[in-house]
Each structure stands twice: as C-alpha cells, then as structure tokens.
Amino acid sequence: MAKKEFKAESKRLLEMMVNSIYSQKEIFLRELISNASDAIDKMYYKALTDDSVTFDQDNFYIKVSTDKVNRTLTIADTGIGMTKDELEKNLGTIAESGSLAFKKENEIKDGHDIIGQFGVGFYSAFMVADSVKVISKAFGTDEAHQWESNGTDGYTIEPAEKDTTGTTITIKLKENAEEENYDDFLEENQLKSIIKKYSDFIRYPIKMNITVHQPKEDSEDNETEEVLEEQTVNSMVPIWRKNKSELTDEDYENFYQEKRYGFDKPLKHIHINVDGTIRYNAILFIPETMPFDYYSKEFEKGLELYSSGVLIMDKSPDLLPDYFSFVKGMVDSEDLSLNISREILQHDRQLKAIAKNIKSKIKSQLKSLLKEDREKYEKFYDSFGRQLKYGVYSDFGANKGDLQDLLMFYSSTEKKLVTLDEYVSRMPEDQKYIYYATGDSYDRIEKLPQTEMVADKGYEILFFTEDVDEFAIKMMREYKEKEFKNVSSGDLGLDTDDEKTDEDDKDAGENKELFEAMKDILGDKVTDVRISKRLKSHPVCLTTEGEVTIEMEKILQQMPDNQGVKAEKVLEINPNHTVFQSLKDAQGADNDKLQVYTNLLYNQARLIEGLPVEDPVEFTNDMWKALG
Ligand SMILES: Nc1ncnc2c1ncn2[C@@H]1O[C@H](COP(=O)(O)OP(=O)(O)OP(=O)(O)O)[C@@H](O)[C@H]1O
Questions:
Q1: CATH number of the domain that 40 lies in?
Q2: Judgement on whether residues 494 and 508 belong to the same structural domain of the protein
Q3: Do the annotations mark residue 90 as ligand-binding?
Q4: Predicted model pTM
Q5: Ligand 1 center to residue 130 CA distance, Å?
Q6: Where is there biased composition of kind Acidic residues (predicted)?
Q7: 82 lines ligand 1 (CB under 6 A)
C-alpha cells in the first residue's frame, strides 16, 4: 500500500505557532538575537577548520536599531549569512533548523554551543510584525538575497544589495492595538532591558545607538545636547563560566546587585561548575537579610535558569527545595530538554538531577559555614532558621536527615544558640532525654516553674520560642537516638529506677482524697491533679499528657481550621510548699475554701503558661475571697 505523507495547512500552522507557543511577545527579540549569535558562532567554527578564515572578535557583533518614523526594528549580524537556497530551506520551512544540522555535523566546543534546535524561533517575529524582511549574504559568496513575508500567505525571495557578509532582519511592527502597544519595541530603554533580561550573556557584543547628553559645543552656559552613541548593551561574559580563582568576592557581590537578587549584601556565595554525567554551572547566594515578603504568599522561590547563556526562566521553582527557598542565583546548563518555546522543560530528568546536586551543595556549604564562621551562620539562622525548621516538619519529616544538623536552639546553660550535636555531646551519662521548654521568650521560659527540677539536675534545656519549634522536634522524635522531652510533659524520666520510691505512691495514697476533691472542682479543665516531682519553689504548675502540649494547643487554636484540639492538662502541686498544707487544712473542713484555693491555683498555673484566665471576674472574686 502506498504510504501518503501528512499534509499541513502551513498558514494555519504558522498562525497557531506564532500565537500560542510563547506567553510573552518580547521573546521574539531573544530568538532573533540567539539566531544572530548562532550565525557568528558558525563563523568561529569555520575559522577552526579553514585556515583562510580568521576569526577576529572585533568584526563580529549584533546591532539592534530602530526607525521610529517607519516603525521598523532591525537586527543585523555579521555572522555566516544565508544563500538563496538556505533562505528558502531555513526560513521557508517551519521546523527546519539549519543550526541543529550544523550542531550534528560539528563537534561543539565548550563555550560556543549553538542555541537553535527547533527551527521555529524565527517565526516568533510575527507576534509583533506585520511583515519581516531578511537580507542575507552568505560567507564566501558575492550575491545577497532578500526574503520577505507577512507571515500568512507565503514569502518572496529576490536578489538584493548587501556589502558585507551577514544577515539583516527588518521588522515592520504591527499597528498598536488596545491591549498591546507595539511602539514599545521602538523605545531604547525597553529594548535595552529586554536584551539585558534574556540575552545579557550572548558572547558577542549587542550594540545599540544610545541617547547620551553631552555638553553643547561652543555653549557658554553649560547647555547639553542629545547625541547618539553606539554602545554595547550586554555583559557578554557570564561570570559563572569564569574560573573561580579569577573572581573576587566583590565580583560576586556586583553580580548579586546587578541581577537584583536582593538589596542586601549576600552572606555567602556558592559557585558550582559540574562537568560529569550532568553538566551545569551555577552561582548561588545565601542572602543576609530576609526579603520583606519572605513568609508571605507573594514570595516566589526559584533560581534563574539559563540554557547556553540564554534566559529560559526567571524563577525555576523546581531547582530549590522549599526549605532552601531563601537561596538566590542562577543555573546554566546546555543539557536541558527544552520545549520549543524554551519556556518550560519537557523532560525534567536533568533538571531533577541538577536540583538534587544543588541541594546537597547548599547543605554542605551551610554546614561548613556553621563550622567555620559561627557568627555569620547565626546571622543566617536568625533570618532563615525558621524555614529550616519548617523543612524538618514538612513532608512528614522526610528531610530531617538533611536538616537536623543545621538547627540551633538557645541553651539554658550555655546562654547562646547551640546545635543538637553540641547538646548531645555534653549530655551526662545518666541523662536520658534532650530536654526543652517552650514559651514566648527566653526570659519567660527561664522563669517557668517546670524547668526547675531539670535545671537542678544540672541538665541543659533548649528554649523553644518559635511556633514551629515543637512541631519540628515532634516530627524528628529523636536525635542521635536521644528522644526529645518537654519539661512540662508527664514523665520527665529524671528518676532512676531505685529513686522511684514507694514514697511517691504513699504520697499519692495519702493525698488521694484531696486530689480527687480538687479534680472534681476543676471538672474537665484538667485530666488529673497530682503531686509534682519537678517543682521546687513554686506551688503549682500545669503539665501535659499525650502528644499535644500547651504550646501546640495555643498554635493550633489560632489556625483557621482549628478543630478544638486541646492539650490534656495536669495540675501538679508542690508537696513541699506551704500552700499544700493550706489545701490539706481546707479539705473536709472548709470546702468553699478548697474550691477558692483550687481555682486560684489552677488559674495561676494557666497564667504562668501564658494561657488566659478563663473567667477574669471569677478569678478576682476568688482573690478577695482568699484574702478576706
Ligand atoms: N541571522 C541568521 N543568520 C544565519 N542563519 C539564520 C539566521 N537566522 C536564522 N537562520 C537559519 O534559520 C534556521 C531557522 O531559524 P529558527 O530561529 O526558526 O530556528 P532555530 O534557531 O534553528 O531553532 P530554535 O527554534 O530552537 O530557535 C536556523 O537554524 C538557521 O539555520
């Protein structure tokens, strides 16, 4: 059976491509400049194999110019040019890429990778053009040709005049429409910023005539006049391709500022050149200060993504895990699988591999910062420590292994931030748990009655002041096989087995009736009333049983989907406090008094925990009753 070829309605195909591939019209300039750069690179390759050709850098450039009267924009290059046949083949056939064919034929040299591969970029000009005129003279030929099209019904090719080798593309801009002002593409500043954004690291100079003000000749009162001056508007050399040894801290800082990654000075830069199964260059920064919108919905994480020096994406979110979302910077790789719009990636295998690599580099750099420059690390931690803790908590603790050694908490004994490793390495042999206490500030935690006994044992306590702290630690469960223990939790594990004397049981037995009476008074506000083993000087405190602690209850209750989760609270009484005797005296003898005392003590314990008094009027009534 004879096989038939598919037919394509080329006019419709072109229309669809032009209007549906790209999300932004300004991309056309990136595409035409990339083509010009490819054409110059082809001259570079020619010079490598043909001795009669010399590649003198000064002769190779791209020039962007405008004619406001005729509303045209011109992109000219001094590259390899196209013959009549090539014009026909490359520009007359959608998806025909002379550049891809060239790439296959030539061994591509580092730093001179050809950008084009799909054979569609050129047509993006029709997003902004009513018509496009291409005049080209191929290297080694005497004749030039002109290709012209309005993008809908075909093209014409005819002989033309051109002195030098290369290609000149002239775009007649579309008439302005309500939603689109095509005149923008005639504005110097606009063009300059599009070039800077996408094509800053094209290796060859992109020149423009820029308006400058200079003193007027023969003028006496410092008058100035506007003149046009040809300037190169792109930076050309990507600093990430440079050797690290050639670069100073200042170079990196300048790059950070130029790219507007932040208004601060970066705390640290990470320059990565990987050349193995995956190949990429990256310059990453750890900022010093937190962006003002960092913890808001508006903040977008991501790194700039370049492919062969051409900007593909402003913020590629897939390159950074959420817990390192504060990292700024860029990644450049030749190996990315781009889709034809160069906007998104079709296969993200390479991207995933790069992201994994980047993640471990950031982790190891933070670790070495912590080791080598504690002061700087603490500055970093002050800004972004919270994000690391979120990282430990999220994904059900999947990343805790990566992050646990980057965490720091304030220590009761060291009076400064310490790492978990430092804590554990200082633990006395008989200490079973890593103790922590929660509260609004270090000051308040320090005064918490619950900390007394643990502190008295000489054990270090970590102070948790951020809402995420306890959630993160609960997700970790343990560090180096040591479990975490809130000083307010039921069993503190302070007593050795022999210390757990019968005395406790005896105490509990003796006071059973008192505690039952108090529990009856408090109802379901507490799950139990009992003797405290952690209090020394304070008469009472609240502790919790089960998973939810008081601090967690406070946070959960603030959440919009608060489901009324409550901590199981236990009122603990210090048997060695004078108040205890008063309670005992009141029990049986004066039940009203016992009620007043119990409620007062319960509310005091709430206040110490930073919980509100449930009924302030009743509380003050109880006060005067107790005083009276
Ligand atoms: N300025 C130019 N000088 C010389 N040849 C050019 C020029 N512009 C385009 N070409 C030729 O036309 C072909 C088609 O260009 P087009 O921009 O459509 O696709 P591409 O650059 O190959 O691929 P991509 O769609 O990935 O950009 C190129 O491969 C190249 O051979």
A1: 3.30.565.10
A2: no
A3: yes
A4: 0.84
A5: 20
A6: 494-507
A7: yes
